[in-house]
Every structure is written in structure tokens, then in C-alpha cells.
Amino acid sequence: MTSAGPDGQPRQIMSVSLKDQVLAGLRAGLLKGDFKPGKIYKMGEVGEQFGASRTPVREAVLELESRGVVEIIRSVGFRVTEPTPDDIQDMWEVRAIVEVPAMESLSGRLDDSTLAKLWSLIDDVEKAARSDDLASYLAKDAQLHDALYEELSNRHLAATIRDLRDSQRVPSLGARRASSDLIARNEEHRALVAAIASGDTEKIHNLTRAHLLVNYHKWQSQSDHRD
Predict the structure, then answer these.
(1) pLDDT digit string (tens) for the chain, length 227 residues
(2) Domain boundaries defined on the chain
(3) Cα atoms found within 13 Å of the Cα of residue 87, Cβ hemisphere only
(4) Hey, is 17 helix, strand or coil?
């Protein structure tokens, strides 16, 4: 079944695991800025956009609410939440504690096939950055991070990192980046995967922490600018 998403583009929704497919569509829409912080969205209307009934939409929204990404408005729908500066600092501290050792655990562990997949995704991210295609960049960037998280031996740890990352990906904070900035961020990805491939744990530690810190300072400065 094909239907139009919130960006007006057709989306293919299959009968199997509708909730997971709606969740993926909502997540992509959040990353691209299709769903704006503070605006209320009705479950039925979102269901029509994704070719799904209210039940899988509500299940997907409930999962996003558990991650702190949206707030459900009873009998109305949901709205996207926007983290405060204190929230951003707290989430960065947790991500630094959790994500740095998680990436260190991948040191020298990835096989050639997995590394080839990561290099390909990094090339895709760079292509989107050079084309100044923010929507594609965000989608490919998310795929790259997800591919790294999938290699962690602890699926609960991977889910925790993903949830924290989703909570921080507020469209209003990401939409102002210049193409040169996106390319620079992707070079950090390239250096990190190279360090993982070579088994340089100390470099993985430093690169991961620096990557998170750059994001934190950017979110903080943009939040201060809005205030």
C-alpha cells in the first residue's frame, strides 16, 4: 500500500509490523523537520498519511513518548517536545558516559563486510552533505549511527543510545547547519570508523567524546540564540 507522508512524498506501508514501519516513518519525519515542536498532530490524520489505522500509529507514538520525543495529548493527538538547555546538558553527560565506552568496545572487532557497509554509508552521508540535502543527510547519518549501534553486543545498550540520540535530534536545532559543517562532521565519522578498524581504543575514546562535545556546543549555542 502506498500513501503520502507528511512531506507529500509517497511512502510504502506493508501489512507486516505496521507499528515498526510507522515508527520508522515518524522518526524520519522528526529528523527532517516534517513534525514541528509544539504543534499538535492528530493520530487519525497521521494514520492516513502513513496508510495505517490508529492502533499502530498510537503504538508508535507511545514508544516515542517513552523516549521523551513526543507528548501525547489525551483525546487529541501528540506534539513534539523540545528539550531545554538543561535537558541537553543532562543528555550529553549520559551519552558521554554510555556511548564512549560502547564505541571503545567495537575496537578491532568489526569484520570486512561490516566495515565496507560503514564506509559506504559514510560516502552516502558525504554525498548528501555536498549536495546540501539536509533531509537526506539526516536520514543517512541516522542509518550510519544505527549501523554502528547494531554491532554492539548489548541490544539494551544500543537501544538506550539510540533513544538518547533521538531525543536530541530536534529539527529546529539541526536545520541551520551549512554544507561545510555537515562535511566536517562526517569526516569525524570517517576518522572514528578508521580508528575502530585499526583497533586504536584511545583514539576511539577521544574521537567519540569530541564528536559528542561538538554536538553539545552547537545545540547549546543555538538554544541560547533562540532565547
Answers:
(1) 444 454 555 444 444 478 888 988 888 788 777 888 889 999 999 999 999 999 999 999 998 998 888 999 988 899 998 777 788 788 888 999 999 999 999 999 999 999 999 999 999 999 999 998 887 888 888 899 999 999 999 999 998 898 888 776 654 444 445 678 889 999 999 999 999 999 999 999 999 999 988 766 666 655 554 45
(2) 2-80, 85-226
(3) 14
(4) coil
> Which residue type does 94 have?
V
Which residue's entry shows cell 522518526?
A: 27
DSSP string over 95-153: HHHHHHHHHHTTTTT--HHHHHHHHHHHHHHHHHHHTT-HHHHHHHHHHHHHHHHHTSS
Distance CA 209, CA 206 (A): 5
Q: Is CATH 1.20.120.530 the classification given to domain 85-226?
A: yes
Helix (H, G, I), strand (E, B) or coil at 79: strand
Compute how many other C-beta atoms are within 10 angstroms of the C-beta atom of residue 12: 10
pTM above 0.90, yes or no: no
Pick the CATH number of 2-80 from 1.10.600.10, 2.40.160.20, 1.10.10.10, 1.10.260.40: 1.10.10.10
Count of Cβ atoms closer than 10 Å to residue 90 Cβ:
13
